[in-house]
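TOPIC: backbone geometry
CONTENTS: sequence, structure tokens:
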Amino acid sequence: MSKRRKPLKIMVLMHADLIPPDSLKGVDKAEQALIRTEFDVSSTFRKMGHHVQNLGVKDEILPIRTMIKEWEPDIAFNLLESFHGDSLYDQHVVSYLELMRQPYTGCNPRGLTIARDKALSKKILSYHRIKVPKFFVAPRGKKVVKPKSLEYPLIVKSLIEEASIGIAQASVVHDNEKLEERVRFIHEKIRTDAIVEQYIEGRELYVGVMGNERLRVFPPWEIIFDHMPDDSVKIATSKVKWDEDYQKKHKIKWKKSDISDGLQKRLTKICRRAYRALSLNGYARFDFRISPDEQVFLLEANPNPNIAKEDEFAASAKAVGLSYEKLLEKLVRLGTKYSSFDIE
């Protein structure tokens, strides 16, 4: 994909309501935040000289089939996080790409399925002796029964949703009443089962990994909460991640983590083991909590994480000399190699 190579035909799969304009001039900040990844990816590929077609996907597979058959793209750059409004269905779209023998970027269906289920992935990681928080699942329609082995405080999350959906200050609970209240919120408002985890006090770090067989682990990135109110819990809530006004008010920022070489080596080793244990490929981000005594807890794996130019994945790649253009180029190459090896 260097300048001497033939331009590629890149089909960028995205949600139908996130198709970006050719320019962000005149687009308000709130709208820009929603479409930032889609804009960055498609506009960067065009600047690199490739032929790009953005395809909005909602609840029909036929448009994907039509573009594959009529346009014959070299690669599908997958930015989908759900299908028909259900986050569990994105894996089926990827399965369809494989059935169509269409090379694509990002994670395979099996890895998406395993990582999406936070309980299943934690069980697999525990089997491989990778430390995760203690947890239990609170299914919809059943009474909340906390195991005696789990002590407060606990944090309540959706079992399957990503991007901090459903996570707020109220997610950290200290008694049975608040636990039942927050689980009910997840059941009724987020409409998924809940996972209830041991709350780990400490620092929150993100580590990006890229590769299929040969893996590259990027430097850890950290959320800085230094200016949050003293009585708040330092967690990545939905507001922390997506509300720019909230970020500015509390001076929340993401930066390369200042940790010891020893801890960084431990994180790198854990990421490599976890990536393979969960059948991931393409690229992923691992979320960690580091306790004050430097115990490392892997919270969850996020295949196909946000990849906007300023997001932590691209920023951590840039920190080791990988420009945004080179990052996208490598993801395309990984997709092409994986697809040709496994499904052609």
In short: The mean pLDDT is 92. The longest strand covers residues 203-211.
